[in-house]
Design goal:
Order of helices and strands: HHHHHH
Radius of gyration: 15 Å
Number of strands: 0
Oligomer: single chain
Distance between the termini: 53 Å
Helix content: 55-70%
Shape: elongated
Number of helices: 6
Structural class: mainly alpha
Amino acid sequence: MSHCDENKKLLDKYINAAEQGNIEAQLILGEIYNDEANKEYDSDKAFYWYMKATGQGDADAQFQLGNLYRLGECAEEEMIDWYTKAAEQGGKYAQEWLQKRNYRLPKVID
């Protein structure tokens, strides 16, 4: 089996797990599709899998979704909303990002 075949098989395994609601697989797919150096790069698919994980309340996915908005051309309000949701759940990176920019932090981390 070639390296490409092995990668395709692994990607299919993640997709299957993610479709069954596995948050870790959803995050991994978000990362795979969000990596511009990866031949699988597809920002729409990254957004889709991060949204699936945020629907299950995952703080890491909320932070990554905020990053997608931050790197977009607009949508600052949505970016701050996702970072705040992540921070409220104890997401360290979201908390740090908000603190560095003097955004009002959620009460749970004041």
